[in-house]
Prior knowledge:
alpha/beta; Rossmann fold; 4-stranded antiparallel β-sheet; 8 helices; 10 strands; 32% helix; globular
Amino acid sequence: MIDVRNAVVEYGQGPQAVRAVDSVSLEIARGESVALIGPSGCGKTSLLFAMAGLHDLTDGRIEIDDSPLDGPRKEIALILQNAGLLPWKTVLQNANLSLLLHKIYPQKTADAVLEDLGLGSVKQRFPAELSEGMKRRVGIARALSTEPTVMLMDEPLASLDTLTKERVQDLFLELWIQHQFSLVLVTHDIEEAAFLGQKIVVLTERPAQIKMVVDNPEMGALAYRGTDAFMAVVSQLRKALEE
């Protein structure tokens, strides 16, 4: 479980400090999927990076499975907006980066994960030779290679065309069901939040506070986008953000 209690994130010190996150408390159960949505620049990514152990809290605490979070952990994977691929490394080398950084080689490699994601035939290619959708899948393979229990995603599908975005969203859903990791997604896309979040946390303008939590119990089916329940959640989120 991820337990965020009265989390405060600030940049800078003293009177010049800028508060990005203000007293946010949130519980995310093991295997639960949560989407964070709010105005641009409100502090969503700051909160996510704190949950990844990449940014110290100014106040409050974060615990993962009852253990205080004091830095990055092997069981926490982070997928960034641009997939974060190194252009001079092959698909396989990029996918293996997490294993190398966590020093859990040579017991395993990301080969099997690449095969599962349909990338086995391109593992010796370089990022410049891939489509945007394939680059995102390489980023997913790298994140999955360490078998995380927590998957954090920061706008991972921004800039993709609609059809490619929906295909990768479907893939995220399938992987979440298969691997049962806790998923936290930061997104500006209302429909993406409704499709991938069992629980959707609407944040205020900066500094981010929780404005509303929307339960989304019917999330989880690939055909969910076409249902009345989906459109009702989208409408509720749009209204909350407009207010």
